[in-house]
Design brief:
heterodimer; A: 934 residues; alpha+beta; 11-stranded mixed beta sheet; 6-stranded mixed barrel; 31 helices; B: 230 residues; alpha/beta; Rossmann fold; 11 strands; 27% strand; globular
Chain lengths: 934, 230
């Protein structure tokens, strides 16, 4: 049977190639999901840690805990210490360092060295005898030597540089501890053996810098235990700090859940034994990661569903086509006694062979796709960046198996119908004309209505959706589902109406149609039902293609527009200003006075197009009620300079230029955010008094704005309990000159318009001249961060991938369908040629048929795609930019994408026509006619 | 009575696998008189279909000449041959050659469109279908009719645009003998009443006597020819 199958497959090259393409794509996409997910999650994990380090400057991967050991021994202490020792095995994660610092409570010591200066400065001090595990390995000696581990009569100690100075010590000094007993209950003597610092300042071991131990004399750990845990100093109280420093780079995304569990178990044990957790920043990071992780997984999954469904539909279609070509064989097999089960088995076998062959090719393709996903920076754009770690594991194989099962299922399902055919009812079947099930059940109307209902209810919940997304929820899969249903339903609806349109066109010109058009219209009208599937397929591919392209483009351009608006200009920086704050602190001056740096030097840099000085400070205003906050953002601008750098995003009733014009018309003019109107009932011409740096100013309101560069009037904030709420921000924009006149020179930000928006020339200048800046933000950098954020990148990647797959499917489906439909009709062409129709006539006939069949539906698909984008993209957008969304969502459809899509389709069309024309020109009439004699 | 078609020593060779020549027709010279029913007789593989294809300008001889109304087919271009087939020739094939998506009426009307028939197409199509006895089944689709009915529609289609000659390749091949005789009678009537010239092939011995002229082919050669019947 195997050989029979192989021969059968070789016989149907075209079909087999299409089935293979479909299968390979399906499996590759399925396996790329877990591969990419894994890689993306790991990257997210790394990013989360890196962001924390960048923001706080602290290393988060440390579990710190502490406990005081009570005098005379402490069981709890011993068990906490035990947990510390077992940390690595309890957490099942490699450690960078495992550190214990023990210190006695401060005690007095006397420097008994013979030094004349001690007489003057005093020789008594408060110190702590301390020990730090494994210190010699991590310390570098500044002078003297490390301590000797042997316990002699005089114990050796080392101190940090800061302590060395603070305690006024010299190497070789000996301290005597009246209340700490050495051997024979005599006061302990400690000699300063050396001064240490860290051997490597990036060593994670140094949770606290050596200089932070200002009163510590470090002695050997063993000696410390001997001294304080034994019988000699039973009265001593010891404070221990443990730092278990995790190698978080070894933490894999898939182990995060288990690790959190283990870590929690360990901290619980520590707390139970009486220890106190003093630091576990990584847990918060990991928990935040878990939320993001769920979001990422759901989003990536939702996005992949349509393309998987499309691939299944493709396989179903091709498999059905193949079966319909094999109807004769099936009926012959059956007439020879093959049972229905055997026929099904035959097709199952065929399907399995194809699926396994595809699997071999799909794995590497899946890995490639995964890299493509990881390198996409925008829709159909890729950047080179560190490649993703991709590997094959059980989960990948599971996904592959799932996809293979799905493929077998959809390719064998059509066989159920065809396996019933016998030679007798084959002919009957052929002559019978049945109304399609979906038409009878009005599935198109049903699906379309459901999607419209979905759209309606999502639009109603819009506000709450924003809040949900902000508090960490994912986009409702039903939303994406609704959009897919919309495309599906609208497509079917178009297909229901289409025959009527063709009939109308046919009727109108019935008398005048040339034979070619006459035949092609009749062909469409009389056999249109058989083409419904390929038509719907065409509609789906084109509409989804447009929809995907629009989502991807819109999300990104929207994010960038919002970034630019919220920042205000290409680059916003603030130089560090000198002031008299130290004098103010000491009471020598009563008002803060700033020293203005020379900002104009930045204007001379190549690449800087324009610069504006913008005062941007927190101030207060004289609110009529004290119940709400009276803080306000005060901006001071110079109208003309500001107009050259600030970006007008085209929102709101008035343009930026109009606002700046009224502002410039009067020195005391201010424009204020429109929410002042609702809160205070302000009107144009009213006065508003505001205070900055102790100085009151009064301005006249010349305008209210909803949008002004960098101003966010209504902000959604996440409350402590994780829910989201909206917060009103109040903004006053005044003339810089007025603020400076009243308050003196006030520190300002510098806003830059850069050539091509690139901040590099400025950044280079700052680095070369070592300009001290307190703020340096630029749109390019922010946009890069957004583009490489795993969820958005995954989204772009998947949408790009879907788009490419759609193009391939469109091409293959189109080609296959038409070549087959030509082959089927070879006899008919022979007859037409014999009757004297020219070759060109036949080509014209086919062209007409394609035009009113395929091309028309490509158009319908495009229209549906555009409508679906308009209706659904603003909602889907919420899932990505809820946080930053200030401006209205603008749908972006890049002409380039559409050109690509239609160019591909056009090329397909041309290839198809070329194949057809070749077929027709090579066809021998006499041979074609003989075909009919079989 | 002039000859509408005349062949002069035509041969037709086919290249077959292995580079050999297969001689389908060899040195055939026949004349088809106007307003006659000519029968080309022979067993399967004798070359009669090849001959009728050449006569109908669907195929060209390897050597020799075919004169149609005195014109040499070989010096006509493809366009002229297409026009010839469209306007002056009608075909009836052995197998069912109707256009499956068109009803009986539409099939006939289509031939008129194709031939650029100038008169009232509807009247002419209806007339032709009545002529073949299918006046009552004009709206039927091919698959709803029997083999004999379909063949009669094919004949109606072949004669609709008033061609000079009708070529019928085994028109009775798939029909029972009673239906075959009906078709033959129809041909005779068409010659009588419509002044048609009909050339047909058959291997059916019982029909041989119904033609005006009979040529017999065997292995691509003419073995018997120019038998005139009353």
């Amino acid at each position: 049977m195997f050989r029979f199958l192989i021969q059968k497959l070789l016989h149907k090259k075209w079909m087999v190639v299409s089935l293979l393409i479909g299968n390979i794509l399906l499996i590759a996409i399925a396996v790329s999901h877990p591969m990419y997910k894994r890689a993306a999650l790991n990257r997210m994990l790394t990013d989360e840690f890196e962001t924390y380090i960048a923001q706080t400057g602290e290393y988060p991967g440390i579990l710190s805990f502490s406990m005081t050991r009570q005098a005379g021994g402490d069981e709890g202490f011993d068990s906490v210490n035990d947990l510390y020792l077992k940390g690595e095995s309890l957490l099942e994660l490699p450690l960078l360092a495992n550190l214990r610092i023990m210190q006695q409570t401060p005690t007095s010591a006397v420097n008994i060295s013979e030094r004349p200066d001690l007489v003057t400065w005093g020789s008594e001090m408060q110190v702590r005898l301390s020990c730090m595990s494994d210190l010699p390995a991590h310390a570098a000696m500044v002078s003297g030597d490390i301590y000797n581990a042997e316990e002699d009569e005089v114990i050796q100690a080392v101190v940090g540089e800061q302590a060395f100075v603070e305690m006024n010590l010299l190497v070789g000094d000996i301290l005597e501890f009246p209340r700490v007993y050495g051997e024979d209950q005599t006061p302990l003597r400690v000699q300063i053996a050396g001064v240490f610092t860290y051997s490597d300042n990036t060593d994670p071991y140094w949770v606290n810098a050596p200089d932070s131990y200002e009163d510590a004399l470090f002695i050997d750990e063993g000696v410390f235990e001997e001294l304080f845990f034994g019988e000699r100093n039973t009265h001593a109280v010891v404070l221990a700090n443990w730092h278990t420093i995790l190698d978080e780079s070894q933490l894999r995304a898939e182990n995060v859940d288990a690790f959190i569990e283990r870590s929690n178990e360990m901290t619980r044990s520590i707390t139970r034994a009486g220890g106190r957790i003093t630091g576990s920043a990584y847990l918060d990071i990991l928990e935040e990661y878990q939320t993001n992780c769920l979001r990422a997984q759901t989003t990536l999954f939702i996005l992949q569903v349509p393309i998987i469904v499309l691939l299944c539909a493709f396989l179903f279609m091709i498999s059905g086509q193949m079966l319909s070509m094999e109807q004769n064989e099936i009926s012959i097999l059956k007439s020879r006694g093959a049972g229905r089960g055997q026929i099904l088995l035959l097709y199952l076998g065929q399907s399995l062979i194809l699926v396994f062959v595809s699997f071999v090719a799909a794995l590497p393709l899946g890995m490639f796709l995964c890299q493509v996903l990881g390198s996409s920076s925008a829709f159909l754009e890729f950047v080179r960046r560190r490649s993703l770690e991709v590997f094959i594991d059980g989960e990948v194989l599971l996904y592959a198996a799932g996809a293979m099962a799905l493929s077998v299922l959809v390719t064998v399902i059509p066989a159920f119908r065809y396996s019933r055919i016998s030679i007798v009812n084959l002919k009957q079947e052929k002559s019978r004309k049945k109304k399609a099930l979906w038409k009878k059940l009005y599935l198109d109307v049903v699906i379309f209505s459901i999607s419209l209902y979905g759209l309606y209810s999502f639009n109603r919940q819009r506000e709450s959706m924003v809040l949900e997304v902000l508090s960490g929820a994912t986009l409702d899969p039903l939303l994406y589902f609704s959009s897919s249903l919309f495309i599906l339903g609208a497509g079917l609806l178009a297909l229901r109406l289409w025959p009527w349109l063709i009939r109308l066109i046919f009727r109108i010109g019935r008398k005048f149609w040339k034979p070619e058009e006459y035949t092609s219209f009749l062909q469409i009208i009389r056999t249109g039902d058989r083409q419904v599937f390929i038509m719907e397929f065409l509609i789906l591919t084109v509409a989804l293609g447009i929809f995907n392209a629009t989502i991807a483009r819109t999300i990104l351009s929207n994010e960038e527009a919002n970034l630019l608006y919220q920042l205000g200009a290409d680059v916003v920086m603030q130089e560090k200003w000198r002031d008299n704050s130290s004098q103010v602190a000491m009471g020598l001056a009563d008002k803060l006075v700033y020293e203005e740096p020379d900002s104009n030097r930045f204007l001379e840099i190549d690449g800087v197009e324009a610069m504006a000085k913008v005062i941007n400070v927190e101030a207060t205003w004289n609110a009529s009620s004290n119940t709400a906050s009276n803080s306000v953002k005060l901006m001071g601008v110079t109208a003309d300079a500001f107009g050259r750098v600030a970006k007008d995003m085209g929102e709101g009733t008035y343009s930026l230029v109009q606002f700046l014009n009224v502002l410039g018309s009067n020195a005391r003019a201010v424009i204020v955010s429109s929410n002042f109107k609702t809160r205070e009932g302000f009107a144009l011409g009213d006065s508003i008094t505001f205070t900055y740096n102790g100085t009151s100013m009064t301005g006249t309101i010349y305008g209210f704005f909803d949008y002004f560069p960098s101003s966010v009037l209504t902000e959604t904030v996440i409350l402590q309990d994780g829910t989201a709420d909206t917060q009103e921000n109040y903004i006053i924009v005044a003339n810089s000159s007025y603020i400076n006149n009243c308050c003196g020179v006030t520190p300002y930000e510098l806003w830059f318009a850069m050539e091509d928006g690139s901040p590099d020339p400025l950044a280079d200048y700052i680095e070369q001249r070592q300009v001290e800046v307190v703020k340096f933000e630029n749109v390019e950098q922010m946009s890069y961060e957004i583009r490489t954020e795993p969820i958005l990148q995954g989204t772009n990647g998947i949408l790009t991938m879907s788009f490419i797959v759609i193009l391939i499917l469109c091409a293959v489906g189109f080609l296959i369908y038409w070549v087959l439909s030509i082959r089927e009709r070879e006899l008919l062409f022979g007859v037409l040629r014999a009757m004297g129709m020219s070759r060109r006539g036949i080509v014209r006939m086919l062209f007409n048929e394609q035009f009113f069949g395929s091309v028309l539906f490509i158009g319908v698909g495009a229209v549906i795609g555009v409508i679906a984008s308009r209706l659904f993209v603003p909602l889907i957008q919420i899932a990505y930019t809820a946080q930053n969304q200030v401006l209205g969502v603008k749908l972006v459809t890049e002409a380039e994408d559409m050109v690509r899509l239609f160019a591909y389709i056009g090329i397909m069309f041309v290839i198809c026509m070329a194949v057809l024309i070749r077929l027709i020109f090579r066809m021998k009439i006499t041979n074609a006619l003989k075909l009919g004699e079989d | 009575m002039g000859n509408i078609i005349e062949t002069i020593n035509i041969s037709r060779h086919f290249r077959v696998a292995g580079g050999k020549n297969f001689i389908a027709l060899s040195d055939i010279s026949i004349q088809i008189p106007e307003r006659s029913l000519t029968i080309l007789k022979g067993r399967s593989g004798s070359g009669k279909t090849t001959l009728i294809n050449i006569l109908g300008a669907l195929d060209a001889p390897t050597s020799g000449k075919v004169l149609f109304d005195g014109e040499d087919l070989a010096i006509m271009g493809e366009k002229q041959r297409e026009a010839l087939r469209r306007e002056r020739i009608g075909f009836v094939f052995q197998s069912v050659s109707l256009i499956p998506i068109m009803s009986a009426y539409e099939n006939v009307e289509f031939a008129l469109r194709l031939a650029g028939f100038q008169g009232n197409r509807q009247k002419r199509a209806e007339h032709c279908l009545k002529l073949v006895g299918l006046g009552g089944r004009m709206k039927h689709m091919p698959q709803e009719m029997s083999g004999g009915e379909q063949q009669r529609v094919a004949i109606a289609r072949a004669i609709a645009h008033e061609p000079r000659v009708i070529f019928a390749d085994e028109p009775t091949g798939e029909l029972d003998s009673a239906t075959s005789i009906q078709v033959m009678k129809l041909f005779s009537e068409l010659v009588e009443t419509e002044n048609m010239t009909i050339v047909m092939t058959t291997h059916d011995q019982s029909l041989m006597g119904m033609g005006d002229r009979l040529y017999e082919l065997q292995d691509g050669r003419l073995v018997k020819g120019e038998e005139e019947h009353g």
